[in-house]
Specification:
The chain has helices spanning about 25-40, 60-70, 75-80, 105-120; strands spanning about 5-10, 15-20, 45-50, 80-85, 95-100, 100-105. The chain is α/β, with parallel strands linked by helices and about 120 residues long. It has a six-stranded mixed sheet. The mean pLDDT is about 85.
Length: about 120
């Protein structure tokens, strides 16, 4: 199991999160705490690119943790205004849901969408 990497890209005004091929529940829980703490240090809103393209989650609990994080956590809801998910096509077809949520099968497409939504932002 590898480490979850998060970088802030000012050109996208977004966080880019890359998951390793193997993801444990413990690593995901630790990352979520650190990510929320980091969010609270940066003023304003930002986007998020979550790349799960090569993921192999330890259990279904990992997916539940991610869902709860993005749906229920008030710090996330307060600071993240648009999310691009990169997932294998067998799990989800690419689709732009709204100005704040989209799914892609390639990271470059997600980056292009984040750039576009940042340039056209009215948030």
């Amino acid at each position: 199991m590898g480490r979850i990497h998060t970088v802030y890209r000012p050109d996208l005004k977004s966080y880019v999160v890359s998951l390793p091929s193997g993801v444990s529940h413990g690593a995901l829980k630790k990352w979520s705490r650190e990510f929320i703490q980091g969010l609270q240090l940066r003023p304003g809103k930002a986007g998020l690119l979550l790349n799960t393209g090569n993921h192999d989650f330890e259990s279904i609990d990992c997916l539940k943790l991610l869902k709860d994080l993005f749906v229920k956590d008030s710090a996330i809801k307060k600071r993240i205004n648009r999310v691009a998910f990169v997932q294998p096509i067998q799990y989800r077809n690419p689709e732009v849901i709204s100005d704040s949520e989209a799914y892609f099968s390639a990271e470059q497409k997600a980056i292009e969408w984040l750039k576009l939504t940042y340039r056209n932002a009215h948030f």
